[in-house]
Amino acid sequence: MKVKPFLVERFMSSYEHLAKFNIAETCVAPFKLSELLSLIGKDLMEELRDLVLDYGYTEGLPELREGIAKLYRKLEPDEILVTKGAIDANFQVFYTLLEPGDKVVSIFPAYQQLYSAPESLGAEVDLLELKEEESWLPNLEELERKVDERTKLVVINNPHNPTGSLIDEKTLREIIRIVEDSGSRLLCDESYHGLFLDGSSVPSAADLSERAVVTRSFSKPLSLTGLRLGWIATRDRELIEEIKLRRDYMSISNSVLVERIAAEAMKNVERIYERSLQILRRNLSSLRQLIESRDYLHWVPPRAGSVAFPGYDLDIGSEELALRLLKEKGTFLVPGSCFGIERHLRIGFGARPEVFEEGVRRLGEFLDSISKVGK
């Protein structure tokens, strides 16, 4: 198996720890354990003292799956499989569904796993390019041309990373129609689902079709990054069983300790979402002020999630810009080159507001200094 370097992960792993002000953060202000326990409002630590540290359930703790299923309109706990993050969930779906030579249609730009992992498994990947002038949304005519009887899987991400675009329900239903007409399946990475910044709401693809498989994470909206949990949800129970067969060779089960904490957190999911949206909307306001006050910056404002993908009209490559920003201002973001798009920057606005606001201020100073040099 040949694996391409995962550009965004390599870049973040190499430089993130050097930053004083991280404005690449996509997870919303991860909880301190003390904060989470206060939110839960019970003496969870006392309960955990008697927890037997044995193997867990292959599918995930029943109580946890019950809590997750409540996020959907049509799914039952037996249609949920708890995983080690959304990245594990995505890979398990690819590993189960794809054989060498299978055709996959995937959006681009995107989280690189969504197209590079299928390639590593021998699939033929046809990229559906998202364009800024089309608000970073899928072109349905182009999608329909690409999807045919050979297509095994269509891969999308909603809300979208790295741009924050949001496929509305009407468009999502059209994508599902194209998938169903071709006899293929849809994988929708919904890691940022629920973080609807403008008051919009879009149902999960899993609630709209039995041909849809969705993945989510405890990291982004739920601020529980360190638990390293996610899940797969689909009404196709046969597929759940197929994934479980393959999972036996990879991970067997998750940590019983981690799943116990996650189950308690799910009982407070609405309060967690409320906290996340409060932080994101405040940070987005700071970012909007930065971008819309400078004529050399442009963007499609994010509608959902915790990332934005502004472009710039300056004579400097995105990686050089990011590294100079880190060195000169102690501020970290991800260059667009990590997503195959130059003259763009991925900014994550999930950090605690005091950190984000100072990081944005420093970014503004840095960009202004570059723009003056170029004049």
Automatic annotation (TrEMBL):
Give every Aminotransferase class I/classII large domain span: 53-363
Does this UniProt record's set of keywords contain Metal-binding?
Answer: no
MF terms in GO: pyridoxal phosphate binding; transaminase activity
The answer on whether this UniProt entry bears the keyword Transferase reads yes
Q: Which Gene3D superfamilies match?
A: Aspartate Aminotransferase, domain 1, Type I PLP-dependent aspartate aminotransferase-like (Major domain)
State the UniProt keywords alphabetically. Answer: Aminotransferase, Transferase
> Pfam families, from UniProt?
Aminotran_1_2
Which EC number(s) does the record attach to this protein?
A: 2.6.1.-
Q: What cofactor does this protein call for?
A: pyridoxal 5'-phosphate
Q: Which SUPFAM superfamilies match?
A: PLP-dependent transferases
Q: Which CDD domains match?
A: AAT_like
Q: According to the UniProt record, what class of enzyme is this?
A: transferase
Classification via InterPro entries:
Aminotransferase_I/II_large, NHTrfase_class1_PyrdxlP-BS, PyrdxlP-dep_Trfase, PyrdxlP-dep_Trfase_major, PyrdxlP-dep_Trfase_small
Q: Which family does it belong to?
A: Belongs to the class-I pyridoxal-phosphate-dependent aminotransferase family.
Protein's name in the database: Aminotransferase
